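Handout, section 4.2: multi-component inputs.
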Amino acid sequence: MQISLFVTCYNDVLFPATGIAVVKLLERLGHTIIFRPQQTCCGQMHYNTGYQRETIPLVRKFVELFADDEVIVSPSASCVAMIRDHYEKAALMVQDSQLLVKVKQVVPRVFELTELLVNKLAVEDVGAYYPHRVTYHPSCHSLRMLRVGDAPLRLLQRVAGIELIELPNRTECCGFGGTFAIKNSQTSSAMLDDKVHCVLDTGAEICTAGDNSCLMHIYGGLHRRKEPVKTIHIAQILASTREEPTA
Amino acid sequence: MSVHIGNAENAPSFPRAARAALINTQLRTNVRNATNIIQAKRNNMTGELPDWEELREAGHAIKNHTLKYLDLYLEQFEANVTRAGGMVHWATDADEANQIIGNIIADCTGKEIIKVKTMTSNEIRLNDYLENSGITPHETDLADLIVQLGNEDPSHIVVPALHINRTQIRDIFQKKIPLHELGIDNLTDDPQQLAEAARLYLRHKFLTVDIGFSGANFAIADTGAVVVVESEGNGRMCLTLPDVLITLLGIEKIVPTFRDLEVFLQSLPRSATGERMNPYNSIWTGVTPADGPSEFHVILLDNGRTSVLANGEGREALNCIRCGACLNVCPVYHQTGGIAYGSVYQGPIGAIVTPQLQNLEHSRSLPYASSLCGACYDVCPVKINIPEILIFLRGEIIRDEQRTLLGKFQLENIAMQAMALVFSSSGLMTTAEALAKFAQGPLVHDGIINRLPGMLSGWTNSRDLAPMPRKSFRDWWLQREKDKGQ
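Output:
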């Protein structure tokens, strides 16, 4: 299948290894990846902070750029949730019926990575090898907006060599919340504190998730406490093989 | 019209108020323990119902329908209360409601009233008003009594004394209740002893005060009946023993028919206290000769509700049945407790109700007091999409600010406009990326960024940040394409 990658702005610039992992993983499974270099950002930060008008050009850009792609994948539950839950609303807000039509055409073809693998491609064993103790943090947007359910865990369970440890209070937010982490810095930090303690309680070497935004936050708290636990996107675990292991 | 929601117009911003709460470890422990217990009970009680999702859907549909025809149902309710011998008063705002209640009490002989838990009376600050007029209100719900005697602010819409533990309660009782007169010598912090002290203290009030005061959980349009659910029996006493009964309710409390209780009397107790049913469900219609109060007044309070109703995007906030489940599940509330919300309505629901009732003139930091994790929407028994309304209100606030020159030149707005420009083209994004990589140089120490300037210091106060890697995904991809082509 030909799959178009929406890597997202922060993965592109801050976490390139995640995008590379998605390409390697899907190519290993026999798919062809297209990357449209004109892509930028889904607009979530603007939209959720209240700058909804400023999001409209990004919505327009997205639906025009990906108009002809059959399947679009993104290694970010949060950005997919933005597209799926808010693009239609954004088009309605500016009463642009042409934009609305395009949104309705493109949005159903956008999938979060684990959703694509388990629900659309019906794969659970991706042939990965990752001999580490791992705990999985289900990000809020994957859990409660996309409702990916146990798709990520089913993928992780089939990874050879992995030891999965359940994260206590796993459904509770890590406290990131985009600009919330800045505007309500202290409350956000207190939430992060709880999450970091839960991660440490598992004794895992690695904390993974489907969103690098949460992982960036959790990493920030772990590193400040000089804890050696690493954070890594689920795509990088799934891309890891015996021949080419992810560090 | 002047809308007052408790003292919300003078409350500090959420981030400021939260700071005080966050350093209070006792408060945070109390809140965490209490919410964990209620949440576990709630999850058991909703989990055992095979049709829980249908109940939520039904509650949502009934409430939406009622709001759509609220004017008609209110008039129907008024007609039926009047027919049953009650008196209906309409109050446009808090001041008017207080005056109406004050006038009713002035016509009575007594100078005291007994109250069953009502948040709406906190909303209009009735107790302050009455005390200034020489009337003594007695809260009879145990938690409300604790809050009243301790001069505390309520911190939860269902369990207002959630932030106070039993040792603190003992101290309050020792100071404020004439224990010796009640025959209590050594009060310990044993919950049974504390409850017994309150019971003895209140029993006397129930038997001597002849004006009762309540709110309402529901008001039924087609019969004119009013419903109060509670757990302690104090409500039953307030509603039946006094000669005069005054009930204050927000206009959104209406449901069309008696049959609708079938839905809410299942979903409310399970969501609020994790019980299959409330221990006491009082439903009464007007007055009945020689049985209960001989005089019954209903005050229908607007206080900003019609302006919320006029707002297509935010009006679902009025569907709330005040169960508090969204507070118990909220990770922000877990950290700060309820007082930081500066309102009688706290937590996620408070963050969409309080600012809207005030027409966004105050409490503008509340819509931002959420990480938008969505847990509140998942538990809401009437399916209010709280995150969606929070985002909408943030939009209203920003659009409002951008109308002024000062707002336009605010740092955040400038940064957001700059980011919007950067994202408008991949070329600009690449340029900005190169600039950022250059700019981050002096900030990186030992391979990590641990101190950022200005607004962004909010991040590095407690969190490190890995520097931007040398090559972006885009660089990798374009290089690979180039290599393939060779």
